Amino acid sequence: MYTRYNYHAILSLSFLLTFCGTETAQPISKIKSTEEDQTIIEVYNNEINNQIRREKFNLIIPYAMRKNNIDMWIHIMRDAISDLNVQKDNPTYENDLFGVEDLGSSSGVFVFTDRGGDRIERAVIGRRWGATQRQRTEDKSHLIEKLGVYDIIHDPIFVAEPLASPKTEYDFRFKGLKKFVEARDPKQIAVNFRDELGPWETTRMVRDGISYTDYRILVKELGEKYASRLVSSEYVIMDYCISPVPSEVELLKKMRKDELKLVKKSFAEIKPGITRTDELGETGDY
């Protein structure tokens, strides 16, 4: 799954090198990108992510859930509250890497239900925003609809938080979840907390995700009957992450080709006895 994250940096440099002729070549570290270049890169990255997400949802989620005997998988995240375990040297991904990149959003309650057939039902509920998302706009609140991978998307509700109350919009996200679960009556429900596996066994980007506060609210909302069916989703997430899809394989091939171009470009700029190592810039060391 880190193929994409590594490739974004390589892709950015590849685009920039394309715009630099041989006669005007500069050290990679000194090349500046234009706003138009960055827009092209961003659009291309989004297309890659969406294609991989579609294939993962269609091919891997059914496999991962059924392999681990999971009837319903609930993945919970909080927007604007960063994951403390995320890579500190990568400011682009401030939240849980798995959720943001793989689910297409950094906030909400994501529910995947095995109702038979080849397709797993996909739902996004619990999108309630208030004071901690003051800068979020109505347009941005509907970006997830554009992904085209979810069957059910509840409309976002902007919560006016009670004055002099400890509650925030996050306390309202689980309302209606019990009714949703009851209608599907899953025997085993996976939730994003770790139980048996450590960080090395589950790869770097698999995080707990759910806070203790959210877990308590979730248990209260579900009630004893369904709360007793909660298990860790660690094996589901692990299988999801380590199982490649065709678009990921193709991306890896392109990534290595572009990486080789960067290395050759950097080496071509070397003037023996003059060029310093810090002038070579990035050389594809990922």
Task: List its traits.
10% strand, disordered C terminus, elongated, six-stranded mixed sheet, alpha/beta, two-stranded parallel ribbon, Creatine Amidinohydrolase, Chain A, domain 1, 39% helix, 286 residues
Notes on the protein architecture:
It is a single chain. Helix content is 39%, strand content 10%. With 286 residues, the chain is α/β, with parallel strands linked by helices. It is built from seven helices and eight strands, in the order ααβαβββββαβαβαα. The chain has one domain (2-247): Creatinase/prolidase N-terminal domain (Creatine Amidinohydrolase, Chain A, domain 1). Helix 1 (2-18) packs across helix 7 and helix 2 (35-67) packs antiparallel against helix 7. The strands form two sheets. The protein has a six-stranded mixed sheet with strand order 5-3-2-1-7-8. The chain has a two-stranded parallel ribbon with strand order 4-6.
Give the SSE layout.
Layout: H1 2-18, H2 35-67, E1 72-77, H3 97-103, E2 108-113, E3 121-125, E4 128-129, E5 152-153, E6 157-158, H4 177-182, E7 189-191, H5 212-227, E8 230-232, H6 234-242, H7 246-268
Parallel strand pairs: 1-7, 3-5, 4-6, 7-8
Antiparallel strand pairs: 1-2, 2-3
Helix pairs in contact: 1-2, 1-7, 2-6, 2-7
